[in-house]
Amino acid sequence: MKIYQQPVTLRQRTRGFHLITGEILNALPQIGRITTGICQVFIQHTSASLTINENADPTVRKDFEMYFNKTVRENDPDYKHDYEGSDDMPAHLKASLLGSSVLIPIRNGELALGVWQGIYLCEHRDYGGTRNLIVTAWGE
Fold first, then answer.
1. Most buried in the list 20, 38, 39, 64, measured by CB within 10 Å?
2. Euclidean distance between the first and final Cα of the chain, in Å?
3. In a domain, 102, yes or no
């Protein structure tokens, strides 16, 4: 079994849903050496998340942002954790709803994503800063 791991620092992005599939592949080219395996992408933050969804139509990413902003509103007076800004507690909630990692099968040296699938960085803060990932791939 082969195991590869690479830390990745993503540049700062605006709030929203951003395709990062290419950055993951560039960071860990050893995926090409694995015939059958798994790739895990893990984000080391509590106010941003990862998910897999539509990679072609950018309006899907805009609709994701709209939906999550409607679902988890800012400035709720019931939030106790509010000293880091009005976007902070909602960002933690959104990150918990979506999750901190994704698993993708590797098949014949490629991520076995569907034709219309891509990996999203879900940035839930107005100014979240750079984001750190750990990308691990293993298999035969």
1. 39
2. 5
3. yes
Length of the chain in residues, anyone?
140
Task: Tell me which residue range forms the domain holding 106.
Answer: 13-139
In a domain? residue 3: no
Q: Tell me the two tokens of residue 130.
A: 């750079």
What is the DSSP secondary-structure string of 47-85?
SEEEEEEESS-HHHHHHHHHHHHHHS-S--TT-S--TT-
pTM assigned to the model: 0.96
Nearest partner of 113 among 33, 51, 30, judged by Cα: 51
Report pLDDT digits (tens) over 41-64.
Answer: 999 999 999 999 999 999 999 999
pLDDT score of 119: 98
Give a yes or no: residue 127 inside a domain: yes
Could you say which residues of the chain have pLDDT below 50? none
For tokens 């590797």, what's the residue? Answer: 106
Which residues on adjacent β-strands are paired with residue 136? Answer: 5, 40
